[in-house]
């Protein structure tokens, strides 16, 4: 037996990359493009969200600054604060008493003024006695809230304004009586608000006046010219 060797011819072929069908290649490129587009869109959304967040923060800061400025403005004038405190107290009182009325506050002649606009005279009382009591209670509310003594003036239903006009006429008549008679004139007892009105009228007429007696019987005496 003769040993033989198989002459097998081995053909080396160059390493070639597998051929990808054109349809698959185009689909892959399309997917990559879509992914890139989505990434850009996501980035744009993130930038927009961040920008909106910054604007919101800036807006919140501005609102906070405005609130701070508003608080500063509210606390700048102590007399306005007095009026606001008294108005809050009176508003609660009106609710408890089931009374209708609007409340107005303003500052005049170095005093806080609070006016209750109402048709009812329940809060005025006879000769303004209830009104005087409410004024003192309102002042106490201010002292309790601010720790500062208050000289605020309270009016209800325009009572004090009407009283001012009546007292101005009364004081004018008394001044004429003093001038014609040369004698002092003693008026009936009045509260401090009313006495102040009379003193102002007398001083404007060129005469002098003084108060005598103890509360609540304290009164104005108009003196003749010397």
Feature tags:
RNA binding, R3H_dom, three-stranded mixed sheet, 226 residues, alpha+beta, R3H_KhpB, SpoIIIJ-associated protein, 57% helix, disordered N terminus, three-stranded antiparallel sheet
Structure description:
This protein is α+β, with helices and mostly antiparallel strands and 226 residues long. The chain has three domains: 28-76; 78-157, GMP Synthetase, Chain A, domain 3; 160-223, R3H-like domain (Ribosomal Protein S8, Chain: A, domain 1), CATH 3.30.1370.50. The chain contains five helices and six strands; from the N terminus they run ααββαβαβαββ. It has helices at 22-76, 78-97, 129-146, 159-181, 192-204; strands at 102-108, 111-117, 153-156, 185-186, 208-212, 219-223. The strands form two sheets. The protein has a three-stranded mixed beta sheet, with helices on both faces. Strand 1 and strand 2 (111-117) form a beta hairpin. The chain is elongated. The N and C termini lie far apart (174 Å).
Low-confidence sequence ranges: 1-35, 37-41
Mean pLDDT: 79
Question: CATH homologous superfamily of the largest domain?
Answer: K homology (KH) domain
Tell me which CATH architecture of the largest domain applies here: 2-Layer Sandwich
- Write the CATH fold name of the largest domain: GMP Synthetase, Chain A, domain 3
The succession of helices and strands, N to C, reads HHEEHEHEHEE
Question: How large is the radius of gyration?
Answer: 45 Å
Q: Count helical runs.
A: 5
Question: What is the CATH domain class of the largest domain?
Answer: Alpha Beta
Q: What's the number of structural domains?
A: 3
Shape: elongated
In whole angstroms, the N-to-C terminal distance is 174 Å
| Broad structural category | alpha+beta
Q: Describe the strand arrangement of the main beta sheet, using strand numbers.
A: 1-2-3
Total DSSP E strands = 6
Domain R3H: 161-226
InterPro entries: Jag_KH, KH_dom-like_a/b, KhpB, R3H_dom, R3H_dom_sf, R3H_KhpB
Organism: Microlunatus soli
GO molecular function: RNA binding
